[in-house]
Amino acid sequence: MNALVIIDYQNDFLPGGPLGVPGGDEIVDPINRLIDGADLVVASQDWHPASHGSFASNHTGTKPFETIEWNGMEQTLWPDHCVQGTTGADFAAGLNWNRVEAIFRKGTDPQIDSYSAFFDNGHKRSTGLSGYLKSMNVTDVVVVGLATDFCVKFTALDAIAEGFRTIVPLETCRGVDLNEGDVETALKEVTTAGAMVEDSFSFA
Ligand code: VGL
Ligand code: ZN
């Protein structure tokens, strides 16, 4: 049993949005092909309260994309994005959302960020995704969406740690590359951890 896990394909992460990922609008067709072929399709949704501590606007004297120490962890500060109930937090048009069986929201606790669709960044709280996939007898997970060097990366790392055979098809992901080379480094980490990073992929 395989599952397609669509990461954070939301309006605020598309070009023109406050946290627009370059080329984020170019991955619709290849993701839709995977949606058609997957046994099970799930999605994550970045879903922050306006008071979220990952927003630079909630720390005086900071600017977006700075890194600070926050609650004992390194945190990149972001522009306000994916605020609960806003259009920016809505799933972006173009994907065939009808096949999505379950949605896992993350980043809801104002005191911690959550890049992975499985756990928060402190690995303290589970979203329930792992248990859900296991209850559905999923063995193979394909991770697609935004952004390669943040939420896709940490979701893939957790998928491997949770024991899933994990595939990341590059044609279905785009990265932020805050510093040039971040995407390359992320892909190396994911590969080293045991995921299969492939240019393109299709379900047999
Ligand atoms: C993401 C930064 C902040 C992502 C979410 O989906 O990759 N990146 N929140
Ligand atoms: Zn976020």
Observed structural traits:
204 residues; Rossmann fold; two-stranded antiparallel sheet; 4 helices; 22% strand; globular; binds pyrazine-2-carboxylic acid; binds zinc ion
Overview of the molecule:
- With 204 residues, the chain is of the alpha/beta class.
- It is 21% helix and 22% strand.
- The model has no long low-confidence stretch (mean pLDDT 98).
- The longest helix is centred in the C-terminal third of the chain and has 14 residues, at 148-161.
- It has a single domain (2-47, 91-198), classed as Isochorismatase-like (Rossmann fold, 3-Layer(aba) Sandwich), CATH 3.40.50.850.
- Strands 1, 2, 5, 6, 7, 8 and 9 form a 7-stranded parallel sheet that branches. A two-stranded antiparallel ribbon has the order 3-4.
- Helix 3 (148-161) runs parallel beside helix 4 (182-193).
- A hairpin with a 2-residue loop joins strand 3 (67-70) and strand 4 (73-76).
- 42% of the residues are buried.
- The protein is built from 4 helices and 9 strands.
- It has helices at residues 28-37, 129-135, 148-161, 182-193, and strands spanning 2-7, 40-46, 67-70, 73-76, 100-106, 140-146, 165-169, 173-174, 196-198.
- It binds pyrazine-2-carboxylic acid and zinc ion.
- The site of pyrazine-2-carboxylic acid has 8 residues, from helix 3.
